């Protein structure tokens, strides 16, 4: 498989009771839009050794991955989507009609696709993403993650799943 461009993130519709959960959501959001890599760059020319020295340094490289997620503005979902959106990548939220009043409060970011039910939501998330990552969450996150793992096991998709 080539470079991933669209990553589906499953995560809690609540923020949880530990800061580490929201930190993880913010961190993943930032990592999707950029990555810090180590690079070698020309630093000095040493005449005695008749050659160039290279010095380890680092710089920021844009990763610009797009996000597919559950479409909510609440909890960890809201944090990840806002972070990726603020980082300049495309955000696609997929949410069933019945969950709009529950999982969206205030404004959502990016594109919102309203589907008829949970099954269609998961199928669309699976179809539109190149890889899946699960963050902390509740039963819903667990269910979504397990479904992607079992679909992989059954050969329904061959995309990486990470948690
Ligand atoms: C397929 C059906 C029920 C199976 N349950 C769920 N399937 C898919 N997604 C779900 C389910 N229950 C909740 N969710 C969503 O997960 C997200 C995170 O929830 P969490 O509990 O806070 O981790 C959230 O968007 C939920 O909507 C019905 O036929």
TrEMBL record:
Its EC number is 3.2.2.n1. It catalyses: N(6)-(dimethylallyl)adenosine 5'-phosphate + H2O = N(6)-dimethylallyladenine + D-ribose 5-phosphate; 9-ribosyl-trans-zeatin 5'-phosphate + H2O = trans-zeatin + D-ribose 5-phosphate. GO terms for biological process: cytokinin biosynthetic process. GO terms for cellular component: cytosol; nucleus. Transmembrane segments: none annotated. GO terms for molecular function: hydrolase activity, hydrolyzing N-glycosyl compounds. Keywords: Cytokinin biosynthesis, Hydrolase. It is an enzyme of class 3 (hydrolase). Belongs to the LOG family. Cytokinin-activating enzyme working in the direct activation pathway. Phosphoribohydrolase that converts inactive cytokinin nucleotides to the biologically active free-base forms. This is Cytokinin riboside 5'-monophosphate phosphoribohydrolase. It comes from Populus tomentosa.
């Amino acid at each position: 498989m080539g470079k991933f461009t669209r990553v589906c993130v499953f995560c809690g519709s609540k923020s949880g009771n530990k800061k580490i959960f929201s930190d993880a959501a913010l961190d993943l959001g930032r990592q999707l839009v950029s990555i810090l890599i180590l690079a070698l760059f020309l630093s000095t020319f040493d005449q005695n050794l008749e050659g160039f020295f290279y010095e380890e340094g680092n710089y920021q490289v844009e990763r610009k991955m797009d996000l597919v997620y559950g479409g909510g503005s609440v909890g960890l979902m809201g944090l990840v989507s806002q972070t990726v959106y603020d980082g300049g990548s495309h955000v696609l939220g997929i949410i069933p009609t019945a969950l709009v009043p529950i999982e969206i409060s205030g404004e959502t970011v990016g594109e919102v696709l309203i589907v008829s039910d949970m099954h269609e939501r998961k199928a669309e998330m699976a179809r539109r993403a190149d890889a899946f990552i699960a963050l902390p969450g509740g039963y819903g996150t667990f269910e979504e993650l397990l479904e992607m793992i079992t679909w992989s096991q059954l050969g329904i998709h061959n995309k990486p799943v990470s948690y």
